[in-house]
């Protein structure tokens, strides 16, 4: 059977949003892959549906983006689905903050350290575990958390413009237990210059969650943490104005609002 092409309606997503792609299962369907930016993403079968998650970066240009899908069947047939995503513009206000001067005007040593850490983090996000490690909906790392709606804010530290805020700041007193938002493998657990004590979880298929400014880290690289497992305690380490949790999510390298993840359906 020769390959064929079919089209579906355009999906709509805003800057900074995680978006789930769904393909109904068909008899004989063995594999589905999504092409998104420079990534080939395997969809995971969950009952009668194949699923993948993509991220619209908070600085993504508004407009139409191609998101083609390829389907492979057990009889050798192949089919391509020509989806596209319409990216809409978000509204991100400006926030002014005062922090320790050393976190704005960096010394040569701190500049070198920050650059090394950026490289380490970039390598983590560039890798993709092909299987999905979670099987339940995502949850906030602090039950009943307050705050957290400052994702994407354009930030000015001590009068100097810096990168937009790539996570959600959750109100938390020092020592508050921080829970894993979902099942994942620890790929970083250490003190970072800007982020303080940090834990990064790899949830598979390009989804990562990060937990920053902790007062204590209770996991180690290589640990597999279950949804709701304690990974550390909230604190005020790194570049902060007070105790809180910075909760961030990357999906295929895109910075997305973590509160767009919890509604994802379970298997």
Question: How would you describe the overall organization of this protein?
Answer:
Helix content is 7%, strand content 45%. It has one helix and 22 strands. It has one helix spanning 108-126, and strands at 4-6, 11-14, 18-24, 29-36, 39-42, 44-46, 49-55, 63-73, 78-88, 94-97, 154-157, 160-161, 167-171, 177-179, 184-192, 196-204, 207-214, 216-217, 224-225, 230-233, 244-251, 254-256. Strands 13, 15, 16, 17, 19, 21 and 22 form a seven-stranded antiparallel sheet that branches. The chain is globular. Residues 1-7 have low confidence and may be disordered.
Q: SSE string, helix = H, strand = E?
A: EEEEEEEEEEHEEEEEEEEEEEE
Structural class: mainly beta
Rounded Rg: 20 Å
Query: What are the segments in which pLDDT stays under 50 over at least 5 consecutive residues?
Result: 1-7
Largest sheet: 7 strands, antiparallel
Mean pLDDT comes to: 89
**Beta-strand share of residues:** over 45%
Q: Quick one: overall form?
A: globular
Number of strands: 22
Helix content: under 10%
Distance between the termini: 31 Å
* Helical run tally: 1
Brief overview:
The protein has about 270 residues and is mainly beta.
Secondary structure: elements and pairs:
Layout lengths: L3 E3 L4 E4 L3 E7 L4 E8 L2 E4 L1 E3 L2 E7 L7 E11 L4 E11 L5 E4 L10 H19 L27 E4 L2 E2 L5 E5 L5 E3 L4 E9 L3 E9 L2 E8 L1 E2 L6 E2 L4 E4 L10 E8 L2 E3 L11
Parallel strand pairs: 1-9, 2-9, 10-11
Antiparallel strand pairs: 3-7, 4-5, 4-8, 6-7, 8-9, 11-12, 13-21, 14-20, 15-16, 15-19, 16-17, 17-21, 18-20, 21-22
């Amino acid at each position: 059977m020769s390959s064929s092409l079919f089209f579906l309606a355009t999906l709509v997503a805003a800057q900074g949003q995680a978006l789930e792609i769904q393909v109904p299962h068909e008899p004989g369907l063995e594999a589905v892959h999504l092409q998104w930016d420079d990534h080939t993403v395997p969809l995971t079968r969950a009952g009668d549906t194949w699923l993948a998650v993509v991220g619209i970066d908070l600085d993504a240009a508004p407009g139409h983006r191609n998101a083609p899908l390829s389907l492979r069947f057990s009889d050798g047939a192949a089919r391509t689905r020509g989806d596209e995503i319409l990216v809409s513009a978000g509204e991100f206000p400006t926030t002014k903050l005062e922090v320790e001067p050393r976190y704005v005007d960096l010394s040569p040593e701190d500049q070198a350290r920050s650059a090394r850490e950026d490289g380490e983090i970039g390598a983590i996000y560039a890798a993709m575990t092909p299987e999905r490690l979670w099987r339940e909906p995502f949850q906030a790392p602090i039950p009943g958390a307050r705050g957290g709606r400052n994702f994407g804010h354009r930030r000015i530290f001590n009068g100097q413009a810096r990168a937009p805020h790539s996570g959600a700041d959750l109100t938390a007193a020092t020592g508050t237990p921080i829970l894993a938002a979902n099942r994942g493998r620890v790929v970083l657990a250490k003190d970072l210059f800007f982020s303080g004590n940090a834990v990064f979880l790899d949830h598979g298929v390009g989804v990562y969650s990060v937990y920053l400014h902790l007062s204590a880290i209770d996991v180690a690289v290589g640990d597999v943490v279950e949804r709701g497992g304690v990974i550390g305690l909230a604190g005020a380490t790194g570049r902060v104005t007070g105790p809180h949790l910075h909760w961030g999510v990357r999906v295929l390298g895109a910075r997305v609002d973590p509160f767009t993840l919890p509604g994802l359906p379970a298997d």
